[in-house]
Amino acid sequence: MGSGQVTSWQGKNITVAGLGVSGISAARALAGLGASVTVVDGGDSEGHRAKAAELAGLGVSVRLGDAATLPEGTGLVVTSPGWKPDSPLFRAAAEAGVDVVGDVEIAWLLRDSRPDRKAAPWLAVTGTNGKTTTTQMLASILRAAGLKTAAVGNIGTPIIDVVLGDEEYDVLAVELSSYQLHWAPSVRAHSAAVLNLAPDHLDWHGSMEAYAADKGRIYEGNTVACVYNVADPATERLVEEADVEEGCRAIGFTLGAPGPSMLGVVDGILVDRAFVENRQRNAQELAEVADVNPPAPHNIANALAAAALARAFGVPPRAVRDGLRDFRPDAHRVARVDEVGGVVYVDDSKATNTHAAEASLAAFEPVVWIAGGLAKGATFDELVQKSVKRLRGAVLIGADRALIAEALARHAPEVPVVDLDRTDTGAMLAAVREAARLAEPGDTVLLAPACASMDMFANYNERGDAFADAVRELAAGSA
């Protein structure tokens, strides 16, 4: 399926992999366009059967309990993002010469299917960390400029539903994960950003090289700007390797003073030397660091990336400032919970890998660090080495806490460590109390686990809620 290809869906036999949110969205949309759709899912629970019954009413066939066999006559497979490329269903598709694409690819191919309106351009964001925050910042800036927009993709409403919905948009802020990009060969954004690259999801991609290559797909065919992180040369290399439209520019963002064709920070001011006349000499003030919420270094970088994409779309400077001021981050992202006894408690449960935890730790000093969970194959030596000077102490929880303890013993032997061998519902309260014992007035107790949460919690949201509840109980006890 090539870029810009117009596809007739009438009567096409399509297999949709997975009964998740994006799978159901794709099945509904394609059936509505006249395709013959079969959804396959390995589960067969009561919940699965309820979803199957709902789709059956739309003429969609659902096969439960078998996610490996390719239905006979399949002409295209549409996958949900989490399915691995080596899944048996996809191997069967490859052997049969059948393409496999994702819901983002389908959304891209459907964007011109409404004859009553013009397709909205996509401003796209990816990276190991910061994608959601940057995409939401971008949407806030676009709204401040008076544009009709939505934050979509790996966030919020399924992108197919937005493309085919009744709302008409001027531009879309699109968050794309490496999974989604892997299955979206035709997407061509107006402008796109890769925020950073660090090892993550390597079990899915197979190697760091494959992971980076999938991230780099976001730059393919960009028409106006490829936004990269000056502090992360790997992102600039992806720009250099991309096949873009004639005239598309490489735009850097940096926490330092920007050079020409960059956005950066000068004396607490976010400035633009990319989208101004005579960028060799001139710079445009966009906002103050204080306008960024929270003004942690990694979040300032997110703001600069969002501003670069917005400016590439022609947004005026004032809208950047107003959009950043209006923006409120989602829960569990460097969120201040409370101050108890002169110690500030911060919830960054969303820091589920070492790269995110490093950025979080860099925003505070001194820190009592609450960390641990499922390591997903990560190692922690580099994280500890970079953060050791900030650490007052550490409290470790979760299944793979020993890996962090070993890294601390190697690189920070003077830092006191509490190893909590508990997975019960009271473990987070115990962790917060131990952190409070280690902390001194002026310190920050920071939940930045550097690990996934599923060993103890349903998700990172539940983990963050448990932390906030524990801090509130601590505050009530000290009142």
In the predicted model, the low-confidence regions spanning at least 5 consecutive residues are 1-6
Give the fraction of residues assigned to helices: 25-40%
Major sheet: order of its strands? 7-8-6-9-10-11-12-13-14
- Estimate the global geometry from the Cα principal axes: globular
How would you state the average pLDDT, rounded?
A: 93
Number of helices: 17
SSE class: alpha/beta
Distance between the termini: 64 Å
Radius of gyration, in Å, reads 23 Å
Main beta sheet strand tally, sense and closure: 9 strands, mixed
- The number of distinct β-strands equals 20
Strand content: 15-25%
Written description of the protein model:
The protein is an alpha/beta fold and 479 residues long. Helices cover 35% and strands 19% of the residues. It is built from 17 helices and 20 strands. It has helices at residues 21-32, 46-56, 88-95, 103-110, 131-144, 159-164, 178-182, 202-205, 208-216, 233-241, 297-312, 317-326, 354-361, 381-387, 401-411, 427-438, 460-478; strands spanning 13-17, 36-41, 61-64, 76-79, 99-102, 122-126, 151-153, 172-175, 191-194, 225-229, 249-253, 262-266, 269-272, 284-288, 335-340, 343-347, 367-371, 391-396, 417-419, 444-447. The strands form 3 sheets. It has a 9-stranded mixed beta sheet, with helices on both faces. It has a 6-stranded mixed beta sheet with strand order 15-16-20-17-18-19, with helices on both faces. It has a 5-stranded parallel beta sheet with strand order 3-2-1-4-5, with helices on both faces. Strand 15 and strand 16 form a beta hairpin. Helix 5 crosses helix 11 and helix 16 (427-438) crosses helix 17 (460-478). The longest helix has 19 residues, at 460-478. The protein is globular.
